[in-house]
Amino acid sequence: MSTNRERFKQVIHHKKPDVLPWIEIIFEETLMRWFREGLPADEVTVIGYEIGRGGTFFTNWPIFKGFGKIYDRFGCQSFFGCMLLIDVGPVPRFKQRKIGETEKHADYLTETGAIVRRPKRADFEFYAMPQFIEFPVKDKKTWEEYKKRLNPEDPRRYPKDWETEGYIDLFESYHKGPTLLRFNGFYGFGAELMSIPRFVTAFYKDPELIHEMLEHWEYFTIETIREAVETLKDRIDVIYWWEDLAERHGPCISPKLFREFFLPHYKRVTGFLKKNGIDRIMFDSDGNLNPLLDEIIEAGSTGLWPLEVNAGMDALEIKQKYGDKLFLIGNLDKRELAKGGEAMRKEVDSKVPILKEMGGYIPSADHVIHVEFSLEHFREYSEYMKKSCII
Amino acid sequence: METTILDNIANSLGNLENGEKLTELLRKALESEISMADIIEKGLRKGLETIGNKYEGGEYFLSELLYGSDLTNAVFEILKPYLQQLEADVKGIIVTGTVRGDMHDIGKNVFKMFAEASGFKVVDLGVDVDPELFINAVEENKAEILGLSALLTTTISEMKIVLEKLNSAGIRNRVRVILGGNAVSEEFAEEIGADAAVLDAVQGVQLCKEWMGE
Known about the structure:
The complex is a heterodimer of chains A (391) and B (214).
Chain A lengths: L3 H9 L10 E2 L3 H9 L12 E3 L10 E3 L4 H6 L2 E2 L3 E2 L13 E5 L3 E5 L5 E5 L2 H4 L5 E4 L5 H8 L19 H8 L4 E6 L1 H9 L1 H10 L1 H26 L5 E5 L12 H21 L5 E5 L7 H6 L4 E4 L8 H8 L4 E6 L1 H6 L1 H18 L2 E5 L9 H14 L3
Parallel strand pairs in A: 1-4, 5-10, 10-11, 11-12, 12-13, 13-14, 14-15
Antiparallel strand pairs in A: 2-3, 6-7, 7-8, 8-9
Helix pairs in contact in A: 7-8, 8-9, 9-10, 14-15
Chain B lengths: L1 H13 L4 H13 L4 H21 L5 H18 L13 E6 L7 H12 L3 E4 L6 H11 L3 E5 L7 H12 L7 E5 L5 H7 L3 E3 L2 H11 L3
Parallel strand pairs in B: 1-2, 1-3, 3-4, 4-5
Helix pairs in contact in B: 1-2, 1-3, 3-4, 4-5, 5-9, 6-7
């Protein structure tokens, strides 16, 4: 019988596993709801909170230590089973602090230099996405200043014990899922630093700045991950390339801009990875990516997640069009799954059996298991998925 | 001559040529004593309509939509000294905001930008807006349209509360309610008694224009 990691690897290499892996990301707020609905807290190891960066450097959400047990309990895998701990954020960090408040809201300087506003009501404070009030990069001058924090040579980017023997053994014993190396893509990085409107209009208003930023991000990315890639190339199963560059209507930038500004940089980063034998590169973006799929493949990506149904993404259509050029993860409509019962079964039945046959597909909700999902409905979904994933 | 200059303005904007070119064309239009109403309607807004159509047709994307709105709003700034009649030319008044508990504002801001460029006066209440504030703003501004935005499935129920409060205040029949954001759907709009739910800013502004009799 294969391990979870082996199954994951088989599928993303378009081979048939003995059992289809089923992957989810359970949102922390959902877990809180499930505790209230009767999930025994002692069955997930909650030692305490730590502030996690979630792999992208503008989120600072609390992470449950020992969260993995929740996945075992329901028979699925956590997406983030084994993430290489490389810091791709600004170093040094900005000192997070509250910089003002009103009766309803509090404003904070984030560790990435943005200013965000959070509601003070307890229900929303911890998990709700904040409103971004100000972004650190506005023009060439502020970029030049910010760039000083994006030095790939900074030794703080790697764990202190990176070079000690046994680091890989520790990974092996601690984690059960695939090993991921996660970093931010060219769009994701720029939009995080400048805001989406400022970044996407800068392609027209200040193309020189965009070229400079992307040039540096390519250098920064390759040089930051170089050590990990060159030493752990046989261990890294998949690259998790975060972008979030689309909305429900379509990509936030056109295929023309993607080709002109992004493609050469993408190719050099994916080329570096492929030279080291890492060719499973998963592109993470919500929204409707359909108009950009040819470019994404040409850029060197070989997988997609989460294939948001509400934005018109259809795993069957993509499989039929692109075959083994892309492995796919997700595309189960989270809204239908959360309804439970017949709606949930219909959603699973309409996709999993046929995609399982086509191969190169890992079932998952089309984003995190959100707070609308009751414990009862997730249990029901879990039982149904276990049956559906048998090959 | 007049038609050519106005077409050039519309084409320049619709094709997203740079701001200097557009400004130069506007200067020519002003020198030719073309009426401000024609410059705005047959030049600028026609160009903006082209951008909206190209966005809906898949030729343009968010970057082009925002840049086009940006160009238009920048031009309006330049024209301000000549535009006493702008206030009178307002197509309608829209109150908009993101509902209580939801801090997302990108979609709402895109809608606002495009609506303003299209000739609406937009009263933006920001994010995490209490239901009462929507009601007050609609009354105070005599708004014809209320645009409610929510990204989260956990906050769309707030839209229903706003609708209920509009009813309680006795002003529901004086204002059209349009919903936007990833979490909303036409079915949901119908369920809570809103007038419409739209996929994106362009659809939203188009609908607002239809409501105002365009």
